[in-house]
């Protein structure tokens, strides 16, 4: 028997964070449909698995990432661009950007134009370099929401000032183009990541504003969004970025500013996918399909080699309009961000048709293309993307960013449809495919997260193509935001983790929740419920699929025992029926009194999981799981 190798999650408990929530600002606009998120700023993870993690993340990962970004010139690039903006310097000369930013062919940041870099007078890296700076800083902002740390806040603010200094008069912000190729701005949307960078800046700005209340970054993000809005859209330029991200970022920007143009622009970028690009709206005209590499047998899967990318193929989910896409294809990070934005737009009633479209794509991924770890992307087609259905070799790609994007997406599906099955996959991906990207020490990272590796796979302190370390930096401190959600007078508990939360529940006012648990090492969870005053509401507890013999929806993976020990529940010491509703939640609708106590007991035997017979590689094998964790040897 062989065991799928994913992540070893050690169990170290210590006290976590103090909170600086007093500074948290502005609630984002609520969606029109589905659930409303309970922002991570209202949740404190203390002790237990996550308290320990987020604390270590703050102490080690965030400073480590910022140091590396500084050392690798992600921030000083802005200083160079600022000089150009300020008129102090002409165009800067320095190495070449990687034309196609080819991640599978090495480490662009590590080798290029070292002479100029040493002199500090040339832009370093490529056209996606700014995004890493933004993501690292965004991580710092999220982390600061739960950690009092004036020195870090000062550092973040100073770097943001350097970034804003590089913004051009018309709102344009991209250090690479400003300092190095000003004549080529917006010239190659397919490959050059300007939209992607812009989206990440918007996300940073929203996080910074929510942390501090300051509008300096937010105002800069608005200027940038306005600049893009002035150039792209109906009656303007019909085009889309090759790396989606801005679509979901614009929705965040809309939610904190109330500016509807940003929501419309997000929709425009989604709707223009699969259309011919130019100065008027035209239908997609088919181009000859590119030659795709032959299917790779699994023994060669680890020798990734990119073919020349076509500029119009499924890699960028731009091969046909999104509403016509029935299969998940192409780059898995781009797909995850796109599907996230689709679910968001459906929730905001901006594009209700996306709800069905994204459900179809969800089934394709979860029923046919997902690893047991929640990992996505085999890179079978050399595009860091999805492979063929049921072709899931264990020595695979599963980029950390793709797995993180997967969590973002499942979260939004859960919010859109209020069904626990999405939170099941969110939890699975969170504990396995996503968390495996960062070492327990907090200062080493995976780009790929294979389930099996003959040579051994080591996390490294930095990756020149820094998308994954910086994505992990911003992802981990957001975990508190996945625990709870609300709808009218119902409070949903999606994840179990030690800590406290304060949830605003309409007429019932503010409800305090306190979870005590050693989850995921132990299935015992105590929740103390303290409404401001006794009030009637529905507390909906997610009964995880893995606790009732159905680790994932669909048939891609099957629990050997589909009737495990019963879930137990006591309310103020008295047993309660635990049968969940069709939405996967156990509903406790009653008049809640301050101090009411729930004791949930999720059985945690070791489970043997079998793959669908079509997953050839896993025939005759089982994976071992306990709770949501897929076990591994490292
Ligand atoms: O291009 C930006 C990021 O770099 C992508 O999301 C990753 O897959 C890597 O290619
Ligand atoms: Zn990445």
Question: Can you walk through the features of this model?
Answer:
The protein has 16 helices and 16 strands. The longest helix is centred in the N-terminal third of the chain and has 24 residues, at 48-71. A hairpin with a 5-residue loop joins strand 5 and strand 6 (510-517). It has a seven-stranded antiparallel beta sheet. A five-stranded mixed beta sheet has the order 1-3-4-8-12, with no helix packed on it. Strands 9-14-15-16 form a four-stranded antiparallel beta sheet. The protein is of the alpha+beta class and 634 residues long. The site of beta-L-arabinofuranose (FUB) has 10 residues, from loops.
Quick recap of the structure?
With 634 residues, this protein is α+β, with helices and mostly antiparallel strands.
Provide tags for this entry.
single chain; 634 residues; alpha+beta; 12% strand; disordered N terminus; binds beta-L-arabinofuranose; binds zinc ion
Number of helices: 16
Poorly predicted runs are 1-25, 91-119, 288-312
Q: Structural class of the helix and strand makeup?
A: alpha+beta
Give the overall silhouette. globular
Query: What is the helical fraction, as a range of percent?
Result: 25-40%
* Ligand list: beta-L-arabinofuranose, zinc ion
Largest sheet: 7 strands, antiparallel
Our estimate of the beta-strand percent is 5-15%
How does the SSE layout of this entry go?
Elements: E1 36-37, E2 43-45, H1 48-71, H2 76-85, H3 108-111, H4 114-119, H5 129-144, H6 150-165, H7 175-179, H8 194-212, H9 216-231, H10 246-257, H11 260-271, H12 332-347, H13 353-368, H14 400-417, H15 420-434, H16 467-475, E3 484-487, E4 490-493, E5 499-504, E6 510-517, E7 524-531, E8 535-542, E9 557-559, E10 568-571, E11 574-575, E12 585-592, E13 596-601, E14 606-611, E15 623-626, E16 629-630
Parallel strand pairs: 4-8
Antiparallel strand pairs: 1-3, 2-5, 3-4, 5-6, 6-7, 7-13, 8-12, 9-14, 10-11, 10-13, 14-15, 15-16
Helix pairs in contact: 1-5, 2-6, 5-6, 5-8, 5-16, 8-9, 8-10, 10-11, 10-12, 11-12, 12-13, 12-14, 14-15
The chain binds beta-L-arabinofuranose and zinc ion (ZN).
